[in-house]
TrEMBL record:
GO terms for molecular function: glycosyltransferase activity. Its EC number is 2.4.1.-. It is an enzyme of class 2 (transferase). This is Alpha-1,3-rhamnosyl/mannosyltransferase. Residues 19-172 form the Glycosyltransferase subfamily 4-like N-terminal domain. InterPro entries: Glyco_trans_1 (IPR001296), Glyco_trans_4-like_N (IPR028098). Residues 192-340 form the Glycosyl transferase family domain. Keywords: Glycosyltransferase, Transferase. The lineage of its organism: Bacteria, Pseudomonadati, Pseudomonadota, Betaproteobacteria, Burkholderiales. Pfam families: Glyco_transf_4 (PF13439), Glycos_transf_1 (PF00534).
Amino acid sequence: MKLKVAMAARTLNVRHLRGTGRYVQELLRNTREPDQVEWAVYGHDTALPFRVPPGLRGQAEVFEFRGDRFHLWEQLGLPLKVRAAGAQLLHCGENTAPIWQPVPTIVTIHDTVPWEEETRGLERHYLHDVQGMALRRCASVITISESSRRDIAARWPFLENRLAVIPHGIADEFFDDAQVPLPAVLEQALGGAPYLVYLGGAQTRKRFDWALELLSRCGRDDLHLVGCGFGAGTAPLDRIPPALRDRVHIAPFLEEGELVTLYRRAQAAIYPTLYEGFGFPAVEAQAAGTPVLFSPVSSLVDLIGPLAWTNPSHDFDAWLSSLQEVLSLPPHVKAEKAEQTKAWARQFSWRSSVERHFEVYRDVVERRR
């Protein structure tokens, strides 16, 4: 069955791709000719790059629509474009969807964090009231982990029978041997020193302070910390203790190949988040052959591989002990675990994820017929 699928892709219409944008891009990038899927992909800001992958099977368009404050691009502009394009299906891969759905609509809800954060005024009305109505009309909802499925079903019980769990994949770059250099500014800051990688950014639940405390108390004065995930101007530099400021470096935005290199050269990855719909870094670090420390919370319970060290989220002494154990691993033990992890990590394949998305698409279209 040939399908023409419209995709809301505002997270590709950005200066730098982040988690949701990577998800949308990989769906497009991993579509092959035998899939018989043609895309109509839409962005919303003509002033920014539109990071649609080369060789897109279909068309891509950026259009602006007045009333952004009231979300009219999504609620009116997008449905009008979808109808005009003759699409059979609309996929909104970025947590929200329009109420008016001229074709069967699927939404991906990555997690329920946006609904749990404190919002006010129009934003609260849009998330809680408008999206409540939109979700009732959706033909299917995709989510990325059993943890997120439980949270979604608890918040919107009427969606329980329409939920499909399809885990993310990780980029192909983690499985090849290409050596991409780090950005010169980061290379210069490190000066060849051994380092840890912190993943998460500035959000409170990501716990940058936890990583700083581990660095401070691990007993290795030669060890540095590279912080990833901070948008421009969001790094909390004032929270770095004066004694650590020469050893803590905030990474610039890294392309996929640079991120792989950063992981591979690290002594360990620190991922102290308290909640994730799907924890990319927990899988990526292991796929790169690097030990990663995290707590088995939310979706992370499903991401424990051979190179994972897990501890209760608030047991600092256990975290510190695990870090010291990782830092003292004999090279042959680390290499052996890295080899085991390659096979484990291959289950997180974007191609497999894309195929399962297409199964949901076709099921929705068949049911509508």
